[in-house]
Design a protein that fits this description.
The complex is a heterodimer.
Chain A: E1 6-9, H1 20-32, E2 42-47, E3 54-59, H2 68-83, E4 91-97, H3 99-105
Parallel strand pairs in A: 3-4
Antiparallel strand pairs in A: 1-2, 2-3
Chain B: H1 3-8, H2 14-33, H3 37-59, H4 69-84, H5 93-106, H6 114-130, H7 144-159, H8 161-165
Classes of the chains: A alpha+beta, B mainly alpha.
Chain lengths: 112, 166
């Protein structure tokens, strides 16, 4: 199922130990069952009508030690885990930013 | 603040890479015209890579210039790996070129005119014949003809940049 355009402020993550698989699992859980709490990660999944493509942006300070490519890989893995195998083929943009980067580049995710 | 720290403060956005491509093209042109053929070719190869990467990013009409280049290229590599079964390297111009052509219809865009497609493919093929990342560890081997070919080919990409993604 393709999600409609949403902005979610997801639950706080207290665990300081984040391997990439933990980040994938956590993000997939947030994609599947968004939390209403006002903590990171913030994310936006935007369908791009009329094409069957989506843009995903995730603002999360846990990205800090990861390259932009690694962040994108985690987002794609999380999306596939949530939406099913092959669903990442519809992703045209998978962008992971820290809050500082998002501020610098002018990305503001507004509540839906 | 150190130079490295200053670079780290400016993420690789489409805008940043487009400006870098223009700047590096001028530097590569200067090197070739000054007789520094290998250095010029090496730098111009990266210009080609940057132009292809950013052109691919902009094939998606909703992508803005403040988007990270990696945010478009990583899904493209995943698509390539899933569809064709191999993992393209970060410098693979053939992967980038084919991705542009492949993604245009997926983004609702028309195919290029036949002449443009032919010139594009010829240009990419010749760049692939004149550039390899391994050049950096070798003594100079390039001829003036090869350097001029590279300048012509990367110049073609630069002049036709908008046509690649519009």
């Amino acid at each position: 199922m393709i999600m409609s355009s949403v902005t979610i402020r997801a639950r706080n993550l207290d665990n300081p130990l984040f391997g990439n698989q933990i980040l994938v699992d956590t993000l997939a859980q947030e994609f599947h069952t968004p939390s209403s709490e006002v903590q990171q990660p913030y994310f936006q999944i935007q369908p791009q009508p009329p094409l069957n493509r989506v843009h995903i942006t995730v603002i999360w300070d846990r990205w800090n030690k990861l390259s932009h490519q690694e962040r994108s890989e985690i987002i794609l893995d999380a999306y596939e885990k949530c939406q099913g195998q092959g669903s990442a083929q519809s992703v045209s943009v998978a962008m992971g930013l820290t809050q500082q980067e998002a501020d610098r580049l002018g990305f503001i995710l507004e509540p839906a | 603040m150190s130079l490295v720290a200053r670079f780290q403060q400016s993420p690789e956005t489409i805008s940043e890479m487009e400006k870098a491509a223009l700047s590096r093209f001028r530097e590569g042109q200067f090197l070739v015209q000054s007789g520094w053929y290998d250095s010029g070719i090496y730098l111009l190869g990266y210009v080609a890579e940057m132009l292809l990467k950013t052109a691919y990013c902009r094939v998606d009409p909703q992508v803005r210039r403040n988007f990270l280049v990696a945010s478009r290229l990583t899904p493209a590599r995943r698509y390539w790996r899933t569809t064709f079964g191999d993992q393209p390297s970060g410098h693979d111009r053939l992967f980038l070129a084919l991705s542009i052509e492949d993604d245009r219809p997926r983004q609702g865009k028309t195919a290029w005119p036949v002449a443009t497609a032919r010139l594009f493919n010829t240009t990419i093929d010749r760049i692939a014949e004149n550039w390899t990342v391994e050049m950096r560890y070798h003594q100079p081997k390039a001829t003036q003809v090869e350097a001029n070919d590279m300048l012509v080919d990367v110049g073609w990409l630069r002049r036709n940049y908008e046509a690649l993604w519009r």
